[in-house]
Design brief:
This protein is 41% helix and 15% strand. By secondary structure, the chain is an alpha/beta fold. The radius of gyration is 17 Å and the shape is globular. The chain binds 2-phosphoglycolic acid (PGA).
Length: 278
């Protein structure tokens, strides 16, 4: 496992998930990627809906492939199940001649509340750069969506001790020009690329170190209050066996779960671990 970094900063006020009387929201989001058939999608969401739901300070989110979104939203609504739905990507324009693309306003009008932007698979396989991701975030917010913005270093970057610099660039360029009000609708997911789908997880200390750094960065660029309210999720081989220890970290406010969100037992167990911190 890659070693811990040396960052020991952080911000004195962040002793707990609280800021003058208010709690930061814990979020567990499932990222299904390009997996599962339509029938399996409905079965899975049916199984989640019976067992888990969002509550005051905790939100459960499912991000299925875009074509399934309206049916899944309807299924949760009909069952009165308080689970939010999100897209996995959107185009940086709201509409136009972009064959095959999905816009933020299409996701929003299909019932999605969230959209994942900047996932490392999109950065690596579709060459998405911070500047483009910044446009996508703006377009998504304009469409009324909440954003889960993903950042994370590769193994080479970690080994070269570049992690914090990479995170700093991804965060600051990704959220450039956003207002404090915009940031209320943004969640950041720290997903070390070397931990995604590999079975290798960042240790709780490694995750905490980067999460604290992200929060400190946000405080520097906006305000301590905005930073204190920002939910920062960990992603990368989160499983029932490691979720509790990760979410127990002061600056880890939930998870973005890939593989384990395709198994109802594992996803439900992760949500339950998160609920234990409410
Ligand atoms: P994983 O994926 O949980 O399968 O590692 C996480 C993600 O890619 O969001």
């Amino acid at each position: 496992m890659p070693k811990c970094l040396k960052y020991s900063g952080g911000i004195a006020n962040y002793e707990a998930r609280t800021y003058p009387g208010m709690k930061r929201k814990i979020i567990v989001a499932g990222n299904w990627k390009m997996n599962v058939s339509y029938d399996e999608a409905l079965r899975l969401t049916g199984a989640f809906g019976k067992e888990v739901s969002s509550s005051n300070n905790m939100e459960v989110v499912v991000c299925p492939p875009a074509p399934y979104i309206p049916s899944i939203v309807q299924q949760f609504e009909m069952g009165n199940q308080n689970i939010s739905v999100g897209g996995q990507n959107c185009h940086h324009e709201q509409k136009g001649a972009y064959t095959g693309e999905v816009s933020a306003s299409m996701l929003a009008s299909s019932g999605a509340k969230y959209v994942i932007i900047g996932h490392s698979e999109r950065r690596a396989q579709f060459n998405e750069r911070n500047e483009l991701l910044n446009k996508k975030i703006g377009t998504a917010l304009e469409a009324g969506l909440h954003v889960i913005y993903c950042v994370g270093e590769t193994l080479e970057e970690r080994r070269a001790d570049h992690t914090l610099q990479v995170i700093k660039t991804q965060v600051t360029e990704g959220i450039a020009n956003l207002t404090s009000q915009d940031l209320e609708k943004v969640v950041i997911a720290y997903e070390p690329v070397w931990a995604i789908g590999t079975g290798e997880t960042a240790s709780p200390a490694q995750a905490q170190e980067v999460h604290a750094y992200i929060r400190a960065l946000i405080a520097t660029y906006t305000s301590a209050e905005v930073a204190a309210f920002l939910s920062i999720l960990y992603g990368g081989s989160m499983k029932p066996a490691n979720a509790r220890e990760l979410i127990a970290q002061q600056d880890v406010d939930g998870g973005l779960v890939g593989g384990a969100s395709l198994d109802e037992h594992q996803f439900i167990a992760i949500v339950r671990s998160a609920q234990s911190f409410l």
